[in-house]
Amino acid sequence: MSATRTISVTVNGKAYEREVEVRVTLADFLRQELGLTGTHLGCEHGVCGACTIQLNGRSARSCLTLAVQADGQEIKTVEGVAPSADELHPLQEALSEHHGLQCGFCTPGILLTLLEFLDDNPDPSEADIRLAISGNLCRCTGYQGIVDAALAAAERLRGGAAK
Amino acid sequence: MNMTMTVIGKPMLRLEDPRLLRGEARFIDDIKLANMAEAAFVRSPNGHALIKGIDASAALALPGVMAVLTLDDLRPHLSGEHLVVGLPSEAYKQDRNRPALCRDEAVYVGEPVAVVVAENRYIAEDAVDLVAVDYDILPAASDCRAALAEGAPPVHRDGADNLLAEFDMEYGDVDAAFAGAAHVFGESFWQHRGGGHSIECRGMVADYDKPTDKLVLWNSTQMAHSSLRVLVEMLGRDENRVRVVTPDIGGGFGPKLVIYQEEVVVSIASIVLGRPVKWIEDRREHFMTSTQERDQYWEVEIAVDDAGGIRGIRGSIVHDHGAYTARGINLPQNSGETLPGPYVVPAYRMNVRLALTNKVPVTPVRGAGHPQACFAMERMLDRVARELGLDRAEVRRRNLIPAESMPYTKPLKSRSGAPIVLDSGDFPASQQAALDKADWSGFGARQQAALEDGRYIGIGVANFVKGTGRGPFEEVTVRIGASGRVQVYTGAAAIGQGTETMLAQIVAEELGGEVANITVTTGDTARNSLGIGTSNSRVTVVAGSSAHAAARKVRDKALLVASHLLELPVEELEIVGAEIRAKGADERRKNVWIALADVANAVAGTPGYALPGGVEPGLEATERLLFDAMPYVNGTAVAEVEVDPHTGGVEILSYKMTHDCGRMINPMIVHGQVIGGAAHGIGNALFEWMQYDAMAQPLTTNYADYLLVTATELPRIEVVHTETPSPLNDLGVKGVGECGVIPAAAVLASAIEDALTPFGVRIARAPITPPDILALIRAA
Amino acid sequence: MKPPPFEYHDPTTIPEAISLLGSYENARLLAGGQSLMPMLNMRYVFPDHLIDLNKVGGLDYINTDADGVEIGGMTRQRDIEFSDELAEHCPLLSEAIRHVGHIQTRNRGTMGGSLAHLDPAAEIPMVCAAMDARIRAQGPNGERTIPIAEFALGFMTTALAPDEMLVSVSLPGWASGHGAGFQEFGRRHGDFAIASAAALIEVGGDGKIARASLTISGVGPVPVRIEEAEEGLVGEAGSDGVFDTAAEACGELEALDDIHAPASYRQHLAKVLAKRALAQAWERAAS
User: Fold this and answer.
1) Taking the alpha carbons of B497, B503, B508, B514 in that order, is the dihedral positive or negative?
2) What is the pLDDT of residues C81-100, one digit of tens each?
3) Strands B456-467, B163-171: parallel, antiparallel or unpaired by DSSP?
4) In chain A, where are the structural domains located?
5) Which residues touch B30 (CB under 8 Å, ≥6 apart)?
6) Cβ contact, residue pair B199, A106, below 8 Å
7) What is the nearest CA distance from C227 to chain A, expressed in angstroms?
8) Which of B232, B436, B465, C120 is the most buried (most CB within 10 A)?
9) Least CA distance to A57: which residue of chain C?
10) Which of B688, B748, B697 is nearest to B295 (CA)?
11) Which one of A32, A79, A96 has the shortest CB-CB distance to B14?
């Protein structure tokens, strides 16, 4: 048993204080300690991108971050993406409409990656989007539905024509 | 089925999506039970070794460790030590079933030797590092062809040789066909596939409840009922004392159709400790222990006439089977069976040998032997075209089975013994549509222009067929209860292909038209007494057909009961949403209706009262429609590539497919399946390569070394769908899950070879890597 | 795949970090974590102490002056990517950084972390080699500056002493208007390249090459400068033939042989990419 520390984090706007073992990854902390199991682990070596969260507004691999390193930081996970229990975020809607998910396991990481990307690039090309999600592995979709969804969501977020 | 359909055939949004998009789905690792412990496995680091001793004392002394179990510790709970799961065949020469844990010999890297159970996975992994296993390393067989050679080290030390099985497939007078042929061309191929690599690895939670003596295994498997059967047999338990439930599954792609040692071991760990035990495969374990589909060596000859017409094909396949039989001889059987594919091949003989190797067992990965056969066939046709100076598409056109010959019986038998009958489709039209879409006829000019700019572009074409919907059946129950909602249950697991939505659409077509009123439960052995599972592009065909039949029965009964209750003839009633209404628009009739819930309650029975109309109790039906013949999907891929002759780099400029999977229940889902399959196939063709050294040590066990295709390497994949309804089922459906994969390696090899025409490069293996391409250019 | 146990330290100053590093056996510095964390998760390394630099002040900056740029060791790769200053003064780094991993890893990964890890195919060490970087390191006995040529000792081996930490990297400036060429060949975007080449070219008033730098990375254990090529280019106007000759100067470099590519392939790529990088640099400089 390695040492523990008490940390305070804000996740999806909610403050938490917990004692954690210092070797526990942020991904395991979110999933096991806070019960936020929407963040998934696909490879635990920083390649697949399923565990992508946002740390202070920037996407990051939560399998390559220790929970202790998140002390005092703001985290956003997939559970914090939809505006309410009845509504989905435009990117979530677009993913469903463009069949950008099949098994859905990689989807949380895709969402958190693309949300940051669309903030930085409101009017991206298809190539831009492919580059942006090149750090997220999806075995089901061939990425095409994801790319189409991102294009559609970008347009919607810019206030363009719906769908 | 010629009625007008309102739900089937619509690209409806998937019922699965909202929970997945919100992070509210429940995958196996999301299950957290009170008092749950976590397991990690001690695994062989050697391809082949004797186990002389296991010392777990240091691990057991670690705080937080509850148990370290070896095969000796499992024995009191086992009625059999081996997982006996192989599909039956007379071709086996050796029985090679996996022990639950190694006894005194480990035969592949990653084979489980012992299990550690601890408070959490971190501690369990600490303890795994402390278990000392004394190994005597033995010679290992790595390459399957070498494994069959004289003097090769035996994969199992009690084995005389490494020939697991051998069989022949043959029809027609092959020798006469070759003797009389104008031309005979021989080719040697080596092909590789790779792993399944669902982004969610395998995993399970075993929950043994001592007071009731019941074991529940939550399992990320494609085959809940098979898992149950193995547990019943190996643990010697009653069926009603074991339940296997699948949660949301983060992809399957084949390896999750296999029943694994861990399912038995983790279940026993829960029984021994009297508490829930979770085991989640990590990615490194996936590389070492989830089954893969790998190497085949082909030696084939094709005999043709002067016009390129096929007279006969003969050859042999050596198939890498891995160290154990975890599924059967089905893969090379598929390969051999499907080689003639969509073509008329008058005479055919294939010898198939399965070689044991000291590698993880080989079982289907999406495509299951078909991509290899497609590669071999299409490569041979390119050879024929080149030798005879014919257009590659024209050679194919001359040999494709004409539409008027459908259904077309191949003189081969599937593993059930049934003849192989290509049930429907128009193969020449499929190819022509793909060629037109890709402007095949205009490519020569484009290629010439590019060459003048110093660019090497090429085009390729490949046709395929794929038997889908393998029988015998999949059980579906449709039930309406007091809620008025339609409940649908099937043993087939949902692994991401939209099974819930597909079944809901089929059932809604009969029962009210609203998918929102339908709840689908998949892969739970407590809900269906029988089940086969999810594999072989079968669920839409077998489960979909049973769902359709069951929904019709429920519909007929609901209308009959409602007709008694509303005192109107059945013909004047219809189900609309969750109600049964009188047909017609007049005001009086608008008020004549009854809720499905009330109909269900009426036949659920009230003590002492008769059921309306004297019907049987309950508003439900269970169907297990039987299927033997398989509906065949067909399609064509045309790809354009650019090859950099200085680096060997390949860029796919366009990738177009035609695809006919019969009636599409949900075209959006079908489209996604084909594109996803194509991406998988492109990955197999150009990137994925599970490498081993001569000691059968895996060399590519992380995602930096084993390359899955990402968004930046893929072109936009265009698919044109045709719907030729299958005559084999009422829905007219065929399967779809694996089809996109099949022609990918073949079409890309064809295109790359075409791009490098000035160099005379010949491609005979896949994956096709830049260093290989450069070496071929230099050698040419 | 969970990290083994370790003790965790999160100093807030450089002296504190150095003091911790000096007082423990088997301690590792944790920067952005994009290389060390996977190694921990896979249990390839078992440090007893992890010293996290993420809270250390004064290590996250990009300073530009007449001599060039200085980049703090903990500067995130993503900040380098977004820096307009670097785009102007150091276009090679700006371009190369986009090939380092992916958005998510660049958000965490750092300049110093990548350099100290010294993967043979990594882009940052290559840029450092191409630009004659000077690495500022601090240890218990004070500070020293190490030229990149003396820093990159061998396969994933740096000149940093066990009790030293990398503080900053200085990239001496190239004349305004110089051309930068960057070419890498990897299997997928974001992968470590199988081989890559970086070229810098300054054109004099006579329209001839006044200064050149050519670096090959991913081929051998550390990035290498092709000095013979650099010398031969000076005084020449860029042309196919000139760049061919320069590329040929790569000769048969010491090359890695691994699952991704045989040594001979890497040696071949070195020449192909060298020529392309030079042509690109020339084109950009000339324009």
Assistant:
1) negative
2) 999 999 999 999 999 999 99
3) unpaired
4) 4-80, 90-157
5) A31, A37, B247
6) yes
7) 34
8) B465
9) C107
10) B688
11) A96
Q: Which of C208, C206, C217 is nearest to C253 (CA)?
A: C217
Residues of C numbered 124-183 whose beta carbons fall under 8 angstroms of chain A's beta carbons: which are they? none
In the stretch 636-665 of chain B, residues with CB closer than 8 A to chain C read 646-649
* Residue B398 near residue B340, CB atoms below 8 Å: no
Q: Which chains touch A (3 or more CB pairs under 8 A)?
A: B, C
DSSP C254: -
Torsion-angle region of residue B533: left (phi > 0), alpha (psi -120 to 50) or beta?
A: left
Q: How far apart are CA A75 and CA C56, in angstroms?
A: 21
- Between B255 and B5, where is the model more confident? B255
Tens-digit pLDDT profile for residues B644-685: 999 999 999 999 999 999 999 999 999 999 999 999 999 999
End-to-end CA distance of chain A: 52
Instruction: Dig out the tokens for C95 from the structure.
Output: 């371009």
Residue A1 has pLDDT above 80, yes or no: no
My answer on whether omega of the bond before B472 falls inside 30° of 0, hence cis, is: yes
Mean pLDDT, residues B239-252: 97
Indicate whether B416 pLDDT > 90. no
| A21 neighbourhood in chain B, CB within 8 Å | 122
How many residues are present in chain B?
780
Which tens digit of pLDDT belongs to each residue from C197-218? 999 999 999 999 999 999 999 9
In a 13 Å sphere around the CA of B204, the CA atoms on its Cβ side amount to 29
Q: How many CA atoms lie within 13 A of B244 on its CB side?
A: 31
In 3D space, the residue among A134, A128, A129, A132 whose CA is nearest the CA of residue A147 turns out to be A129
Q: What's the fold here for domain A90-157?
A: DNA polymerase; domain 1 (1.10.150)
- Strand intervals (E) in B33-131: 37-43, 49-55, 65-69, 82-83, 98-99, 105-106, 112-118
Among candidates A21, A102, A144 on the partner chain, residue whose Cβ is nearest the Cβ of B716 = A144
Of B126, B283, B704, the CB nearest to C1: B283
**pLDDT tens readout for residues B354-379:** 999 999 999 999 999 999 999 999 99
Among residues A133, A132, A61, A148, which one has the least CA distance to residue A99?
Answer: A148
The candidate with the shortest Cα–Cα distance to B458, out of B438, B443, B472, B436, is B443
**CA–CA separation, B39 vs B388, rounded Å?**
61
Rounded distance, CA A67 to CA A55, Å? 11
Q: What DSSP string describes B569-608?
A: -GGGEEEETTEEEESS--HHHHT-EEEHHHHHHHHH--TT
Q: Which domains does chain C have, with CATH numbers?
A: 7-52 (3.30.43.10), 68-170 (3.30.465.10), 179-286 (3.30.390.50)
Which residues on A lie below 8 Å from B680 (Cβ)? 139, 142
C108 contact residues in A (CB cutoff 8 A): 55, 60-61, 64-65
pLDDT computed for residue B415 by the predictor: 79
Q: How far apart are CA B324 and CA B336, in angstroms?
A: 21
Whose structure tokens read 């209404």? B581
Residues B104-132 have pLDDT tens digits of 999 999 999 999 999 999 999 999 999 99
B613 band by pLDDT with thresholds 50, 70 and 90? confident
Which domains does chain B show, CATH number per domain? Answer: 17-24+471-623 (3.30.365.10), 31-138+198-252+255-289 (3.90.1170.50), 292-470+628-779 (3.30.365.10)
Burial of B721 (0-12, 13-18, 19+ CB in 10 A): middle
> Tokens in use for A154?
């970008």
Please identify, in words, the CATH class of the domain defined by A4-80. Answer: alpha beta
Q: Which of B377, B416, B699, B658 is nearest to B536 (CA)?
A: B416
